[in-house]
Amino acid sequence: MIRKISALVAVAVIAISLNASAHEMSKHAVSTLSGEIVDTGCYLGHAARGASHISCAGKCINGGMPMGLLTNQGALYLLTMNHDNPDPYNKLKEMAGKKVTVTGTLMTRGGVKGMDVASIKPMTK
Q1: Which of 45, 63, 42 minimizes the C-alpha distance to 53?
Q2: Are strands 76-81 and 99-109 parallel, antiparallel or unpaired?
Q3: CA within 13 Å, CB half, 77
Q4: How far apart are the first and last CA of the chain?
Q5: CA 118 – CA 5 distance, rounded (Å)
Q6: CA distances from 18 to 7, 12, 118 (A)
Q7: pLDDT tens for each residue of 15-74
Q8: pTM (2 decimals)?
Q9: Cβ(117)–Cβ(80) below 8 Å
Q10: Burial of 57 (0-12, 13-18, 19+ CB in 10 A)
């Protein structure tokens, strides 16, 4: 009997946790932003970006450096992978230094702005 109660309590805790997580994400807005894909280390460290930095940014991103979207207004958003659909985020790894339009869920926590990437579209010059 105690095992059945423990199992039911565990299931209830999981259900509440999943519901809270879904509720947390529902507070965030889905938006579309345009800008350049940068590696956050080189951009934050020494403002490296643009066509002359494509090769380095690609190496940094493929080495595990976080990616960011530098908007045309100069705002930097940390890009995060959507766990249910990682493909758009992974395709961005090949687009360092290029202009893109990204749609996803905007989030802010601890002063960091981020976007959970849902879809991408390369921009033409």
Answers
A1: 42
A2: unpaired
A3: 26
A4: 68
A5: 40
A6: 17, 10, 20
A7: 454 554 444 555 678 999 999 999 999 999 999 998 998 999 999 999 999 999 999 999
A8: 0.76
A9: yes
A10: buried
With tokens 């105690």, the residue in question is: 2
Q: Which two tokens stand for residue 54?
A: 């494509």
Token pair in block for residue 6: 């423990």
Tokens representing 114 are 């981020």
Quick check: helix, strand or coil at residue 23?
helix
The secondary structure of residue 62, as a DSSP letter, is H
Residue ranges and CATH numbers for the domains of the chain are 29-122 (2.40.50.140)
Residue 98 near residue 50, CB atoms below 8 Å: no
